[in-house]
Each structure stands twice: as structure tokens, then as C-alpha cells.
Amino acid sequence: xxxxxxxxxxxxxxxxxxxxxxxxxxxxxxxxxxxxxxxxxxxxxxxxxxxxxxxxxxxxxxxxxxxxxxxxxxxxxxxxxxxxxxxxxxxxxxxxxxxxxxxxxxxxxxxxxxxxxxxxxxxxxxxxxxxxxxxxxxxxxxxxxxxxxxxxxxxxxxxxxxxxxxxxxxxxxxxxxxxxxxxxxxxxxxxxxxxxxxxxxxxxxxxxxxxxxxxxxxxxxxxxxxxxxxxxxxxxxxxxxxxxxxxxxxxxxxxxxxxxxxxxxxxxxxxxxxxxxxxxxxxxxxxxxxxxxxxxxxxxxxxxxxxxxxxxxxxxxxxxxxxxxxxxxxxxxxxxxxxxxxxxxxxxxxxxxxxxxxxxxxxxxxxxxxxxxxxxxxxxxxxxxxxxxxxxxxxxxxxxxxxxxxxxxxxxxxxxxxxxxxxxxxxxxx
Length: 430
Known about the structure:
Layout: H1 2-16, H2 26-36, H3 40-52, H4 58-74, H5 78-95, H6 98-114, H7 118-135, H8 138-154, H9 158-174, H10 178-194, H11 198-212, H12 218-235, H13 239-251, H14 260-274, H15 277-291, H16 297-308, H17 311-314, H18 317-351, H19 353-361, H20 368-379, H21 382-429
């Protein structure tokens, strides 16, 4: 009887088993090649077709969704990228695929980072980091530490940011990845400058430039290093050197480099201090133009405050209102996406949608005899399920209370924000 039971259970497990290997279909390989060639629209068309005609193979569905998330992210469709990432992640968790679970959590973190939601981004990066550490995936671990450090930097957690960066730098040096090493070295210099350790920041900038000389990354890293170097001297009050290094930064960059908007911002601030308001205004205008392609909320706010400080804008209410409307129009889509995704992410946690997706992914057609065996096993699990349901109900009740508290805080913040806007408008009108 015991042998018969073991045999039945073995057959049940085999019948429910599926291929969880990495997808190797020609369509998937083609879409991946197109993505790497930056032909995002063509890649999207093929991977969408894969999902529309996909079988019940969870691995194929997981990888296709993750690739589509990467494509949508590159096309700045952040809400769609978030949805694809969440779907992919639910499959990877079922498959116990740590490598790609970490990648999907990392991409979710990057989405929230780009939206300026740094606390939520850090939460996802730390999830990815915990998986990478457990699986000892060194390259992914460097990426996760680097990303966590950038989030901590934006949040003003400089000590934690440096800890992340130092650990990532040591690992990049160990595996001899010069690109990662220089990127992290740059970030350390930026954190040192933000923490008012200007001499350390300057030293790091020169170290990066010396290490980058003669490498394929020379222009990019020299451009970034000169930008940080120039702003360090600006903060020290040496405006001549600041102008010199920031101008040199622009000689090493092109319009595609994401930090160029920040360089124009910094250079505009230097000209403003030197009293050359015409050049300052031109630099700020250039920063606004570049920032519209890839909106960085912190840079946008910095630019707006800088433009507002210009004499011709301060003395002209029409100009100030024009710039307020312009910046509001640029910021509106990113603010709307941020609020939408933060709400969606909260609902995922509160309503257990991840569990629902996992259950949907695991649903299969089961033969009648297998169903009978399953029912027999389920009957033995009733007591366990009873306590499990009670636990989930108690937790749901606790989560809903947290959600109510969250909504009250948001309403209070919105009310205070509206009062502030009304006060600004009243001041402008008066």
C-alpha cells in the first residue's frame, strides 16, 4: 500500500512538471538581438507576438515579459515596463530562478528611481541585493550595490551610500571590470562633494580621468569627472576654475549623454555668480531643452530655481508665470506616472496580486485521476489551510489600516501643497 501511494504521488509530480529551461526559440533570440541593437520597436513587435502565442511554459512567459519590460523602459513607457516586470517576477519566484528574480527586482527599482521615488527604488534594489548575495552572483551584486548607493545618495544617506560604493568598487576591481570601477569611483566623488568633502571629491575626479585615459570610455568618464570637478570648485567659490572645468566637460560629451543637462545647469549657475546673466540664461534654457528628453525631477527643480533667480525673470511676473507653466507641463507626466505606480505598487502588496498571478501562472489542465488524487491530498490539508486563511485575514486587516493611514498622510500633504501653490499665486498676482 505504501509503495502504491509513493508511485501515485510520483506520477502526479511528473504529470505536473514542465520545462523551466531558458527559452531558446528563434523569435526570442531575434527580439533579444534587436533589443541589443537598439531597434526597440521591432523587438517589441516580436516579443509581443511571443506572449500572444505563448504556451504554458512559465520560463518562456517570464523571459518574454522581462524582455518586454526592458524594451518599454528604453522607450520611457515606465508604467507598462512596471507591469511587465511584475508579471515576469511572479513567474521567476514560482520557478525559484534567483538570477532573474534579482534582475526583475533591479529593473523595478530603476523604474522608481527614474520617477524620483527613491525610497521605493531603494526597497527594490535591496530586495535584488539580498537575492544576489544569497546566490553569490558577483556581477549582479555589483549592479545592485551601485544602484542602492545611488538611491542612498539621492536620499542624503551619504554614509550608507559610500558603504555601498566601496563594496561595489572592491568587487569591480577584483573581477577587473574597468567600466564599473570608473562609474563607481565617479559616484564616490559625487557623494564626497555632496558631503562637503571637496578635496576628496577633487582627488577622485583626477583619479577617474587618469584611469580613463586611453580606454574606450575616455570621453564619457572625463566628461562626467570634469562636471563634478567644476561643481566642486563652484561650491568652494572658485568660479574661474569652475567655468574652466565645466566648459571642458562639454568638450567630452554629446547630446545623448544623460548628465549634459546637469553640466549646463552647473555652468549656468557659475555665469549667474559671475554676473553674466545672458550666458546663464542660455545655459539654463539648454538644460531645459535636454531635460525634456529624459526628465530628472531634481535637475528640473534646480533649473527652475536657477531661472527664477535671474534678474530679468525676478523683475517680470509674466516671465515667471511663463516658466512656471513650462516646468509644470514638463513635470506633469512624470508626476502622474509616479503617483500611479506608487498606488499600483501599494495595491499589489495589499491585495495579494502577486499571489494571484502566481496561481494563474501555475494553473494547468489536470486529468481526472490526478484530480482525484489531488482532492485526497487536499482533504488532509484542511486544518493547515484553515489556520493559513485566518492568518491572511488578520494580516489583510492590518495592511488596510496601514493603507488608510497612508491615504490620510497623502491627503494632508496634498492639502498643504495646494495651500502653498495658492500662496505663490497670490504673491504673484499681488
